[in-house]
Write a structure and sequence with these properties.
Elements (H helix, E strand, L loop, with lengths): L16 E6 L20 E5 L16 E2 L4 H10 L4 E2 L2 E7 L6 E7 L18 E2 L2 E3 L13 E3 L5 E2 L5 E2 L1
Parallel strand pairs: 6-7
Antiparallel strand pairs: 1-2, 1-5, 3-4, 5-6, 8-9, 10-11
Bound molecules: fe (ii) ion.
C-alpha cells in the first residue's frame, strides 16, 4: 500500500521541510525492532517543491499500544481504558518565516479513533486513505494498486498552525 500527500500552504512556500515518521503495518517503530527493521524505517525528511507540494510512498501504519509500565499503566488500569493509539503518521513541518508545526494525521478507518489512549484525535486530523486500482495516475509512479491520502497543512507566520 502506498500514500502520497499534498501540502497546500496559504502562501507560496519554498523550502518547506517535512520530518515524517510512522509505525509499520504491524504497529512497530523502527526503534522498537532494531533486529528486524532498518534504522530509520518509516521515517523521512522531505523538501516540498516550489508550490509547497510533496508526496511520498509508504505503508499504511497500524495502531499500537503505548507503554503501560509506571504511572501511565496505573492510570489506564484505574480508569478502565485500553492502551492503544489509532493508526497515525507524525509530521513536523516548517518553512523560513513560518512557525514550525508538529502534528499527526490519523487513518480514517483505524480502530481506536474514538478511544485514543492519549486523547489526541480531532476530526480535523483524520484523513481518508482511499484504495486506488492498479494503473491509477499518481505522482509516485506506482503501477500496482495503492492507497492514497491527501493532507493539506497550513503554516502561519504569526504562531500556531493546523491541518
Ligand atoms: Fe506515534
Amino acid at each position: 500500500m502506498f500514500g502520497w500527500y499534498l501540502i497546500r500552504p496559504d502562501a507560496e512556500l519554498t523550502q518547506t521541510h517535512l520530518n515524517v515518521w510512522q509505525a509499520d503495518f504491524e504497529g512497530f517503530y523502527d526503534v522498537q525492532q532494531p533486529d528486524s527493521q532498518p534504522q530509520g524505517n518509516g521515517c523521512g525528511l522531505f523538501t516540498a517543491d516550489d508550490h509547497g507540494r510533496f508526496y511520498f510512498r509508504s505503508v499504511v501504519p497500524a495502531p499500537y499500544p503505548i507503554p503501560t509500565n509506571g504511572l501511565v499503566g496505573e492510570l489506564l488500569a484505574a480508569t478502565g481504558r485500553h492502551a492503544y493509539r489509532p493508526a497515525h503518521i507524525h509530521f513536523i513541518v516548517g518553512a523560513p518565516g513560518f512557525r514550525e508545526l508538529t502534528t499527526h494525521i490519523f487513518v480514517n478507518d483505524s480502530a481506536y479513533l474514538d478511544s485514543d489512549a492519549v486523547f489526541a484525535v480531532k476530526r480535523s486530523l483524520v484523513r481518508d486513505f482511499t484504495p486506488r486500482a492498479a494503473g491509477t495516475d499518481n505522482p509516485c509512479g506506482v503501477v500496482e494498486s495503492f492507497v492514497e491520502a491527501h493532507i493539506d497543512i497550513t503554516l502561519h507566520a504569526d504562531g500556531g498552525g493546523h491541518t
